[in-house]
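[audit] Reproducing an earlier prediction to check determinism. Same input, same settings, fresh worker. If the tokens differ from the archived copy the diff job will pick it up downstream; this log only records the rerun itself.
[audit] input (890 residues):
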Amino acid sequence: MKIIFSINYHTSWGQKLYISGSNAALGEWDKYGALEMEGGHNGEWRLQIEMPETEKFEYHYFVKEEQGNVIEEWGKNRIFSKNEASDNYKLIDSWQDFPSNKSFYSSVFTKNLFRHNDSVKESLSISSKLTIKVFAPLVEKNQSLAILGNQRGLNFWDSKNPVLMSCSNYPEWEIELDVSIIDFPLEYKFLVVNTKTKSIVRWENGFNRQFNFSTEEKKNQHTIISGFRFQEDLPEWKGAGMAIPVFSLRSKDSYGIGDFDDLRKMVDWAKSAGLKMIQILPINDTTVMLDWTDSYPYRAISIYALHPMYLSIKKLGDLRNKDLMNSFKEKQLDLNKNTVVNYEAVYKVKWAYFQEIFNQEKENILTSIPFQTFFKKNEEWLIPYAAFCHFRDVNHTADFRKWETFSEFDREKITDYCKENYDQVAIYYYLQYQLDKQLYETSQYAAEQGVALKGDIPIGIGRDSVDVWTEPELFNLTGQAGAPPDDFSKTGQNWGFPTYNWNAMEKDGFQWWLKRFRKMADFFEAYRIDHILGFFRIWEIPAHSVEGLLGQFNPALPLSDDELISVGLQMNEERFLKPYIREFFLNDLFGEYTEEAKLTFLNERFLGRYDLKDEFDTQRKVEAYFLGKDDKKSNCLRRGLYVLINEVLFVRDNKSPEKFHPRITAQFTYSYMGLNSSDKQTFDNLYEDFYYKRHNEFWKKQALKKLPALIACSDMLVCAEDLGMIPQSVPEVMDMLQMLSLEIQRMPKKLGVEFGNPAQYPYLSVCTTSSHDTSTLRGWWEEDKEATQRYFNNILCQPGTAPDFCEPWICEKILMDHLYSPSMWAIFPLQDWFAIDSILRRVNPHEERINVPVNPQHYWQYRMHFTIEDLMQKEQFADKVKKMVESTVR
């Protein structure tokens, strides 16, 4: 079989074009076995090869530079399928650059909202034919791509009779033409038509396309032209959705916590309300302490395993022991009476049920073909996960460092152990199999209903987790990940996660992350990258800190002594690196307990100047001293000591101690106030350059090492949480990769602006009124009356005094302002949707809050105050939401 590959690509000096593919003739994806293309004159590259008969193979092109760098095409591999009538092929391809409308190539659209299930059209059984392929993702379900041209087979430009194209590989469309009846040159153009009326929806932009054959190419050759894209301006399609954690869902069938079957029920309501997306929080297993602290969904023990709490007991089936089943149903009634999630009680009941149903069903399930298929596909992570859970329970701790045996992971020994102790670990296999099955079924159901599911990828992983146990070299375990001070917390956030060893991860092309993203794509069509800044740099906090103020960015470019001297600052360790503690401000911190604080915690070096005693010189030591004490005095002393420990102007770099970082928000310290005006100005200039200019290109390069490959490994729509201290390089990279930003009106990204303007949001964005980390719309309204008044008058343009409470008409107006915004997606928390209805809204808005970031011990327990079944009965509310969505053309 003869195949001629032809592609147009204009190389620069030192670049060469290669082709690689899935069979031996094309190197089997081995870069070293790839074939070099010939030619290159005027951008035309060509390669002719004799290939063994094959039904199908995949291939792609790449450019190799003189220095060894490789430039890949964007998108999936090309697929060649043999035409039984021909043995001669010419493949005329177009190099695939990043499309301007990449979002519409995501599975949100191709597998859900615009999904086309057209069958493959019968192929022309002739050897001389021409196949034309074109990518056109933005063709809705009631539409089809069509073609017209200057030939009989293209209906001679008859706009009343367009020729429909096939889309068996949507978003790629194709048509086959009989070469023998074409009078070349061929001239044609693509268009979108309504499939029912055959009326034209729109033509593609630009001039007519043309193609010509030489005489000898017309005979006994199948020519395939591919890689075209439908030419149109960036469309302004917009959708609306809702955000709700799975644990917050409530139905008559759930057991005090939402589950994956409840999520399926919520799909039905979303569809009835005209909503196209449901956004949830992370759903990975977080079981560490076996108590309420495991409610924190961002501290997973596995990047693959799903949380057993989200299993639907109803879908697992009834117990054959009727008395036992009835006792569980009674417990279910008690759990469902709770207004919040009682995590400990839910855990106890559901795990008791899991044990019973596993013992009842294990022989049938574990020997079934579906289970065996699941196990084989997932055993790489499933066996270590099951072993981890088993050892956690046997040793009564998830801290594997304290385990008597297997504290260090050995895959071979662990695999052997799990085989020898199969009866003890198999329950974890069983639960993950059922979780995978239930979530996959819900995901498929959502796609059939035209509702996309959006997941959440946390930036961190638990310190006591399967991943840290099995691959400790991928993590920096001496520090803690967090965030610098922001609107959520003035002292920064300390999440307690280890940070990543990106250098180690890079050695195998970030496989840990790639596998994580691909696993998520099994269930979701869109995802939110939690803390996108972490891919540029992470805020790394020393292990001895509780708060985040003594952290530093990693990676970073710390300041040397010479650099400090060059701007007029001589490093003075005593003044700049040690806590600045003076008599004059101690009363501000300790009040009536000042003398006790000085006596217990401080040493006076000389008049009015103090040092912390060694036993209290870190926040962890202070935390331990006050452990279990929650009285007024203890809290005052603890807070004051935390402030003193943070009273520095610089922190040492944790890799190069001879270099330094300005302490974040140092301008709010007493130490800074103690500088003379000249030194203050010098420090301010240094600080501004360090945090907002010095690292821009450096951090951009860090992100571009990781993000392109991670984004390309799945078809999911990429949305990023880009709030906080955002360097200039972040929006640059996000624009380059077409990642959707997050826009929250009360957290504007423009400096000096109090509230964002939804009318000015970028198209590639998700706008929302609140997030799981903020108060709800109604809760925010009551937090700061002066800010609310300014918002009421200046943003909502309402006269007079703002109401004390965010009344339904106000909530509706705010939501409508967001729905009218240019943002591709407007996704509001379900609580904020309920806020527009005087009956559905909760009486106390502060009970609707999901998380309080400033409190690392927050209990994540928000729960809907009525069932999804009740919600489905509120048809007027669903109709109202639907009208709001439709009236704003979403």
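[audit] rerun output stored. Observation attached for the diff report: The chain has 27 helices and 36 strands.
[audit] end
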